[in-house]
């Protein structure tokens, strides 16, 4: 028969258990301390690793193509991007690296000033561009499609740099806005050499009836610009006699798409050219796949002498070449005739006759460029 343990016996049995439990607890505490130390060491190593990785990225950045570009070459690339229409390129480039930001301190990078009147706060952006351009020659583009409210303030700002203007381009949705800008160019423009004007719509609620032709105020600008020699006009109507300065040497006329029937008078074109004896290059063009009617000259024997002209470019449908027989160009070296419509795949007798009459009285050419012009084989 078993006996029941006394309380003294129970205390003696529990003493080793308490000691063992205390030993395990101390062991866990020591292990936790070791783990905390190891975690602290790992964090220190991770921090050191991040520092090394940051240094590696910096050193690798020094050897990238973007950092190896010569400052002058990078400046040329940025300028070409601006010329191709990426007007915000200088701002974008400033976010690449410190080397590029140093290159952007070259004033000529900012010399192409694009003013979008429909964008947010165009005055502030223009002021920023002019500040960076410093005293560089300026190529200015003013683009106004719907919101013209900022034009007076913008032009007042731009004219503070009028002596730096080299090129002025005006792009507008309506004729009225173009003339409003031209009227504000009422200060000396001693370096302005080129003027480009593009008008997409001839008439709005400020204009008279469509039958009444509106004149761009180019003559008024030329009075302030003694060096103005190049003029490009993109407009649905041909400029009238007396609206283009006689000193122009490079004239380009582009007749964009029109929704209403339009007849162009060859007599009007000849009268315009006859008043421009200094012309050296002349270009008249229509958009691709567009035909315009050119009304025959009343006097078939009329001749216009352009003794200085050396490059002539005509781009249009067959009737545009009706101008050719009336031109006398003894100095011509480059002739470019291009059709704006698809080839007929057979000779066009009228084109052939006009080109043949003209070719018979010009000197030997350095360049003859024919594109989709349906000439008879004999020419």
Describe this structure in words.
This protein is of the alpha/beta class and 379 residues long. It is 36% helix and 19% strand. The protein contains 11 helices and 14 strands. The strands form 3 sheets. It has a 10-stranded parallel sheet with strand order 1-2-3-4-5-6-8-11-13-14. Strands 7-9 form a two-stranded parallel sheet. A two-stranded parallel sheet has the order 10-12. Helix 6 runs parallel beside helix 7. The longest helix is centred in the first third of the chain and has 56 residues, at 7-62.
Give the gist of this structure.
With 379 residues, this protein is of the alpha/beta class. The protein has helices at 7-62, 65-68, 71-83, 89-93, 98-103, 122-133, 151-158, 175-183, 218-222, 266-274, 349-359, and strands at 112-116, 138-144, 165-174, 194-201, 230-234, 250-254, 263-265, 281-285, 293-295, 304-305, 311-316, 327-328, 334-339, 367-371. It is built from 11 helices and 14 strands.
Determine the N-to-C terminus distance.
Answer: 141 Å
How many strands, what sense, and barrel or not for the largest sheet? Answer: 10 strands, parallel
Q: What percentage of amino acids are in beta strands? A: 15-25%
In the predicted model, the low-confidence regions spanning at least 5 consecutive residues are 205-212
Radius of gyration: 38 Å
The structural class is alpha/beta
Which assembly state applies to the chains in this document? Answer: single chain
SS elements, strand count: 14
Write the element-wise H/E pattern from the N-terminal end onward: HHHHHEHEHEHEHEEEHEEEEEEHE
Strand order of the largest sheet: 1-2-3-4-5-6-8-11-13-14
Net shape = elongated
